[in-house]
Specification:
Strand order of the largest sheet: 1-5-4-7-3-8
Distance between the termini: 31 Å
Number of domains: 2
Helix content: 25-40%
Oligomer: single chain
CATH class of the largest domain: Alpha Beta
Strand content: 5-15%
Order of helices and strands: HHHHEEEHEEEHEHEHH
Number of strands: 8
CATH architecture of the largest domain: 3-Layer(aba) Sandwich
CATH superfamily of the largest domain: Peptidoglycan recognition protein-like
Shape: elongated
Length: 253
């Protein structure tokens, strides 16, 4: 059955009020805000149109999760985030290819996403390398994106993969980059002459925003191996189109 424009707008959350609301506000605008907070799981009970302490605490939790100024006040930035929060962001289908090259995060929260190129154009070679268990020079990543857009998951998100090596995030070496990050390898020889494929970009435009939303990763912590290991690493190569990934993230968060 067709959906009316009004119904579609209501479902998307575009009926959120355009006014500033804070504790003590009352009326239909507060009720609309409360309905969205309830839909997102931040508020329980009836939307009664009374912006009291319970509504303020729900809004504070949302603001903290979305890394906004946590002031408990509903304004333009919080409205924009609430609109985005209602747009589903789904993880792309993955093919499981478990790697033993992993260890505990030691309780460190995920707050970074590091992108790499593999140095080859052969996904079979890359899978073998990321799952190799002999010797001490063992590597892995959480995800590998093949030339056809297939996303392989090698290490669970809640475990540390061995992808960053000697590195730092914005100068910080503790906790280690491996402990705090998700590593994504992209099958590409890294010469700067081999294009990253359209299928790879489309997969990354779905995977990266999902991870950012899932773990509330700050946008400045979506970066390349070259940025956390300058002078030692050059991946992803210069012809990688970061703007596509950043636009996809901006649309979701």
């Amino acid at each position: 059955m067709a959906t009316s424009n009004a119904t579609a707008q209501s479902a998307s959350g575009s009926d959120l009020p355009d006014v500033v609301l804070s504790e003590g506000s009352k009326g239909p605008d507060v009720q609309r805000l409360q309905s969205v907070l309830t839909r997102l799981g931040y508020l329980s009970g009836k939307a009664d149109g009374d912006f009291g302490p319970k509504t303020k605490q729900a809004l504070l939790r949302f603001q903290r999760d979305w890394r906004l100024t946590a002031d408990g006040e509903y304004g333009p930035r919080t409205r924009a985030a609430l609109l985005k929060a209602q747009v589903p962001v789904k993880k792309p289908p993955v093919v499981s290819k478990p790697s033993q090259n992993q260890d505990s995060r030691q309780g460190v929260a995920i707050d970074a996403i590091i992108l790499h190129h593999t140095g080859t154009n052969r996904v079979g070679v890359d899978l073998a390398t990321l799952r190799w268990v002999r010797g001490s020079n063992r590597v892995s990543a959480h995800y590998l994106v093949g030339p056809d857009g297939t996303v392989y998951q090698l290490v669970p998100d809640n475990r540390a993969a061995w992808h960053a090596g000697r590195s730092s995030l914005h100068g910080e070496t503790v906790p280690s980059v491996n402990a705090r990050s998700i590593g994504i390898e992209i099958t590409n020889d890294g010469t700067g002459q081999t294009p990253f494929t359209e299928a790879q970009y489309r997969a990354l435009e779905q995977l990266v925003p999902f991870l950012v939303r899932r773990y509330q990763v700050p946008k400045q912590n979506i970066t390349g191996h070259r940025d956390v290991a300058p002078g030692r690493k050059t991946d992803p190569a210069d012809n990688f189109d970061w703007s596509r990934i950043r636009r996809a993230v901006d649309a979701a968060v």
